[in-house]
Amino acid sequence: MGVRVLTATGAGVPDVTVRFTASGNGTVAPTLATTDATGVVHASWTLRTLAGPDTIIATVAVLPSQQAVFTATVRPGRLAHLTITPDTVRFFKLQDTTALRAQGEDRAHNPVVLGPLIWAIAGSTSIASIDTAGIVRSLQPGSTTASATHSATGIVDTAHVIVSQAPATVVVTTSPGTDTLNWLGQQRAIYGTAQDSAGYLIVGAPFTWRSLDSGVAQVQVSGGSGLVTAVWSGTARIVGEYQGLADTATITVRQVPARVSIAVDPDTLAAFSDTAHGGGFVLDSGNALISTATIAWSSSNSAIAEVVAAKRIVARANGSVIVTGSFGVLTDTEALVVRQSLATVQLLPASATLAIDQTAQFRAAPFDRNGFEIDTTIVPISGTWRPLNVNWLDVSSTGLATGRAAGVAGVVFKRNAVSDTALVTVLAPNLGPVTSWEWKNPLPQGNPLQAVSGNADNNVYAVGLSGTIVHFDGVSWTVKPRLDVLAFTDAWVSPTGQLFAAGGQGMGGAGMVVHGYDAPWSGDTLPPYGVVRAVWGVSDTSVFALNEANRVLKFTGSSWSEIGSLPLLTAADLDGASSQLMYVSGSVQEGLNQVGAVFKYNGTTWNEVFRGFVIVSDLWVAPDSSVYAIGRNNDCFTTLLHSTDGAVWDSVTVFSEGISNIHGRTPQDIYGTGFCSGASAIVHWDGVSTTVYHPASENGPLQLWGNAAPGG
Fold first, then answer.
1. Strands 245-253 and 180-181, how do they pair?
2. Whole-number Å distance between alpha carbons of 519 and 517
3. What's the burial of 230, exposed, middle or buried (CB within 10 Å: 0-12/13-18/19+)?
4. Rg (CA), the chain
5. Helix (H, G, I), strand (E, B) or coil at 698
6. Options 3.50.50.60, 1.10.443.10, 3.20.19.10, 2.60.40.1080; CATH of 167-253
7. What mean pLDDT is reported for the chain?
8. Which site from 56, 176, 590, 601 is most exposed, i.e. has the minimal number of CB atoms within 10 Å?
C-alpha cells in the first residue's frame, strides 16, 4: 500500500516520516517510512488471521489532526479443521439417543460454514447406530466410534461411543418355573434378571447370591445363575443382588415320599413265639429319610408270622411269609421264614422196664427253645439212637430198644449237642445155674477148639487149631472152610453176628484177625508181628485186639491202628463195656519176678489199676460195667477178683480147681473153666457160693460163652 503527503496546493512533500499502525492482529512493515521526492511512501500490510474488518492508519507527526485510514475485510479461509462434540458419548441404557455436533475451522481457526457431512459408525455397528443428522442411538453394551466426514474435503473427526446399562430394577426367578423342591439334596437353578431404566434386559449381569434361611436351603454361584440345594423341610428366602439392587425368591422345601425300604431281622425264626424286628425308612427321591413318616406293617399269612405291633412279627407256625412295609401306595417287602430248630428233645416214654429180648419203641419228641413241639412231617429231625451200655441194651436206628442183659441202662437220642436219655431197666432173668452140660464134638478128627463166642443162641462160633472154625445155628454144628492159620486163640461175635477170630502163626509169627459172616473170610495181618491173644468189640466198626507184642489195636471197619503199647511181660485177655472203657490183663516184670497186672483204658490213655498174683489170666466186664478177673499163682488156687471201676479191688471167692477163664451172664451168674492135677473143672458162682462140676478128662473145657436170655 502507499501514502502520499501533499501540500495545501496538492504538491508532494518529500522526506516526511509517515507512521503506519495496524489494528487487530494484522501487521504492517515498515511502521515508519519516509516519503520520496513525490511525497509517496510505501508499506506492506499483512491482514489479521481472524475473520472480520481490519484497519491500517497512516499518520504524520506535523499533521496530528489528519490520518489516512485503510480498511479491509478478512473472510474465512478453506476448511482446515473439523471437530465433533461431544468427543465422548456415554449411554446408561439401551435405545437412548444423543445428537453429535460438528464444527469447521480454517487453519486460522476461523469458523467455516460446513457443507454436507457424512455420519457413520466407524466401529461395531451392533453397539450403536447414527443417522444422517448425527443422532447416535445405543443398541447394546460395548464401545465403538462415531465419525463425521466433510464430503468436499474429506476431513474427518471421530467421537467415542460407550454403551453400558445401569440397573434400574432386578428380578429373581426359579427354573423351570417352580419354587418347590421335593427332596433333600434336590437342586434347582435360580436366575436373576436386571433391566436398565428403559426396561431393557442387562445380559449377563453377575448376580451375587445368599440364603436368608441356610438351614432350609443353601445357594451357590453356578455359571451365570444361582444353584439352590434343599437342606431341610421348610421355607427359604434366596436373595439375588446386582450393583446394589436386590430381589428375593421364596423356595419351599418338602419331602415327597419316593420309596419305602424295610429290613426284617432275623430273616429266619427258629422257634414259635420268637420275634423278628422290622426296621424301615420312608425315603424321598434323594434317599433322605422322612423322619415323620410312619410305616404300616403286614404279613402275607398271619397264621405263620403275625404282626403283633409296629415292627414286631411273631412266629406262629412253620412256613414262609412276605412281610410288607407300606406308606400310602409305596411298599417294600422282605421274606421271613419260620422253621423250628431243635433246642431240646424228650424221649417218650421217659422210662421202661424190659425183660431180656423184650422190645420197647421210643419216640424222640423234639421241641424248639420256647417249648413248642416240632412237627417232624414239616421239619424233619434226624439223629442218632444208641444205648448207654451195649451189653445191656440194643437200640435200633429207629429207637426200638431190646433188652440184652439185666441192669439199669438207658436209651439215648442225640442230634448234634441236643440229647435226652430214657431210663430202661432190664430185669434179670430167673435163670438159675446150669445144672447139666451136653457135650458136642463137631470135629472128631481131633483139632482142639480154644475159644467160643456168639451173639445169640442160634449164632455161636468156636475156633481152634489149624484154622478151625465151626458154627452152631441152635440145632447143629457146621464146619466152616479152614484158613491157613496155625491157631485161633480167641473169638468175639458182633451184635450183627459177624465173627472176629484172633490168632496167628505161632511164636514169633504174624498175628491175624479173621472176620466175616461166613466163608470166604477176610484175614487181617496185624503189625507188629505177634500172635493175637484176645479180641473184643462194641460193633462191626469198633473192634479191639491184644497181641503178644503187647499192643492194643483198633479196627474201624476198614483198617487197624494202634491205640496203646503196654509194659506187659505176658498178654492175656481184653474185655470192655464200651470203646471208652476197656481192661487188659496179663503180667508185668517186677524185679526178677513175674506179677499179674490189669490196665484200664478211658478212651484216651491206659493206666495200671491192679497188680498182684503171678498173672491175671482172664477178664469179664459185667453189664453194669464192673469188672471181674482171675488172679492165679503157680498152684491150683485161683481168686475171683472184682472192682466196680478198676480203682478198688476185692476178692470175691477162691477156686481150688486151677480156673483160668471166666464168663458171666449176670454178676450173680458167673462161670469159670480150668484144669489142675489132671482134672478139668467148670465152676459156678451165684454171688454167695461156688458149685463145681468135673467133666470127663477127655472133654477138658478151655473157654465158655453164654447169654442172659432164658436158656442162654
1. parallel
2. 7
3. buried
4. 68
5. helix
6. 2.60.40.1080
7. 90
8. 176
